[in-house]
Amino acid sequence: MDLLDKDGLTESEFLKQYKAGDYERPSVTTDMVIFTVTEDEADSYRKLPEKELRVLLIRRGAHPFLSKWALPGGFVRPNETTEQAAVRELCEETGVEDVYLEQLYTFSDIGRDPRTWVISCSYMALINSDKLELKAGDDAADAAWFKVSYRPLREQKELIVDGYIKTLEYELKLSSEEEELSAVVARTMTAKTTSTGTDYEIVSNDGLAFDHAKIIACAIDRLRGKVNYTDIALHLMPKLFTLTELQQVYEVIMDKELLKAAFRRKVADLVVETDHYTENAGHRPSRLYRRNLEG
Amino acid sequence: MDLLDKDGLTESEFLKQYKAGDYERPSVTTDMVIFTVTEDEADSYRKLPEKELRVLLIRRGAHPFLSKWALPGGFVRPNETTEQAAVRELCEETGVEDVYLEQLYTFSDIGRDPRTWVISCSYMALINSDKLELKAGDDAADAAWFKVSYRPLREQKELIVDGYIKTLEYELKLSSEEEELSAVVARTMTAKTTSTGTDYEIVSNDGLAFDHAKIIACAIDRLRGKVNYTDIALHLMPKLFTLTELQQVYEVIMDKELLKAAFRRKVADLVVETDHYTENAGHRPSRLYRRNLEG
DNA sequence: AAAATAGTGTCTCTGAGACAATATGAT
DNA sequence: ATCATATTGTCTCAGAGACACTATTTT
C-alpha cells in the first residue's frame, strides 16, 4: 500500500524522516505488589499455625522518602514492555521467575513523585510459599515481608444533586518483625444519574513512600474481588496442600471466616485430590490436593 | 523530618538539586474506547427497533496507518493525569462531559507505534443515546460510529509440560454505513502449575490502525464481564427507559438472548419505576424506569 | 379480532449457608 | 480416653432457568 499523505510521502518515507517531537515525556515505572502467604509460629505443635498475607517492601536508601518503605519497582527501559520490566524487577528482588502476574492499574497523579513527572504502571504478583525460600538469596538487605491487614474503618454517604458520594475508608496496617506502618486509604464512589467513578485517596500515611499505600489498597481490593470467582488464590499455595490450608488462605485474604462444608464444595472443581496425606500432625492426617489445571 | 542521605542532603535540598536523568522516556498516550447503543431502522413502526452496540473510530489523516481507522486518543500532557487526558479527548471528540469512564489496560508492546516508543493507557467510556445527539456538533468529519460484532471463532487447547495453553480466537467486525472493518484477536491463556497469564494477540487485521483491535477486544471483554455483576449497562441508557430496552442492551452486549422473567428479577434492584409510560407504540404501553442510584 | 408487546406466575433445579454427625491419628 | 483436626451428610432457603399465562394498546 503506497498511500501518499498531504506532503506526498509514502508511509515508509514518512517513518524514515520522522523525528520525535521535543515535547516533554514522562518517566514510566512499574511498581510491584508481591503477595505471599506465610505461617506464624503455632502456640502448640498440635494446633495448626495461622496463615498471614504478606507483601514485600523495600526500605528506600535515597531521597525522596529516604528510609520510608516502598514497593519494589523501577523504570521501564526502551525495548521492553511494562510487563517485562515487572518480570525483571520481580526476579531481581526475589530471585523468582514464572509466577502469577497481573497488571493492576496505571497511576499518574501529578506530583506523585516529587522529583519529576512519573507514571507508574502497577502489577500484582502472587508467590507461593515453596518459592519463597529461594528469596533468602537476594542482596537487598533492606527488603522485608510485611504482614497485611486491610479493614474497613468508616463509611460515609453524602447526597448531592442527582446522586451521591460514598466514601469507604480502610485502614491499611503493615507489620514486619521490626516495624509497623499504617495508612488510611479512602475509596470514593461518585454516582450521578449520568456518570459513575471510583477513586482512591490517601487520607493518612505513616511510613510508606510515594502513593504506594494507594497501590497496595488497589491490589488487595483486586485480590479480594478475584478470589471469589477465579482460582487466583491457588497461586499462593505450594504444589501440595490440604483443603484446610487453602481455606485459611481464602480467609486471610478476605479477612473473614468461612464455613468448611460450603468452602469445600466451592473449591471442589479448582483442585484435584492426590494419594498423599499429611503426617505426624498430632491429629488425624489430611489429604493433600493439587491445583486443577482445568479451570 | 530532616534525614540526610549519603551526600548529606535533606530531602528538600535533594529535590532542589535534582535533575532528571537523560535516559530515554516513552511518549504516553490515552486511547478511548467509546461505546454507545443506537437503534436501527425498524421494519415496521409496530415492531420494536433492534439495538446496536457502537464504537467511535476516527479515520487517520496522516501517517502512519494513513486512512485506517483508529480509536480517539492523544498524548498525555504534563500536569494532567491519564484520566484527565481521557476526559479531554472525549470532550474534544464527542462534545460530551460527565460520562462513565474506566481505565482498561496499559499497552506497551514494543513497536506498537512504528514512529517511536509509545505506551498507551486505554480507557473505556459509555455514553447514553440522549447525549449522543450532541455529537453532531463535532468537527471531525472523519469520525464514525461503527456497529460492533465480537464473536468466538475458534477454540484451541494445547497441552504442554505441567499445564496447557488455551487459545480463544474472536472475530471482531466493525461496520459503519460506508465501511466494514474486521480483525481476528486471540486471547491466550497459559496455565502452568505455578503461573498463569492471559495475553491478547492480533491474528489478522483489516482496516484498524496500530494495535487498536486488541484494545477494542479488551474493552468488549471488560464490558461483557461487568454487565453481569454491576449496573454498568445503565450508563448506556437514557434517563427514562423501558425494561425491554434495558434487556435489549444487555442482549446486544452479551450477544445472547435472555429470558424476560429472569432478566426482570435480576435488574429489579438496579432500576426504579416511574409513573410514565411509552405512548403511541402500536401496542401495549410500557412503564418507564430510571436508574436506581442505590447500587 | 388480530398484532404486537408488556408484565406476572410458578415449577424446578442448583448452590450457598448453617449446623450436625462421624472419622482418624497422636498423645 | 482425650485432643485436635478431617471429612461427610443433610436441611433449608434464595436465586436462576424455563415456560406458560394474562394484560393492554393500536390497527
Automatic annotation (TrEMBL), chains A, B:
Keyword vocabulary terms for this entry: Hydrolase
Domain Nudix hydrolase, first and last residues per copy: 27-173
Origin: domain of life: Bacteria
InterPro entries: NMN_biosyn, Nudix_hydrolase, NUDIX_hydrolase-like_dom_sf, NUDIX_hydrolase_CS, NUDIX_hydrolase_dom, WH-like_DNA-bd_sf, WH_DNA-bd_sf, WHD_NrtR
SUPFAM superfamilies: Nudix (SSF55811), Winged helix' DNA-binding domain (SSF46785)
Family recorded in the similarity comment: Belongs to the Nudix hydrolase family.
Protein name (Swiss-Prot/TrEMBL): ADP-ribose pyrophosphatase
Organism: Paenibacillus odorifer
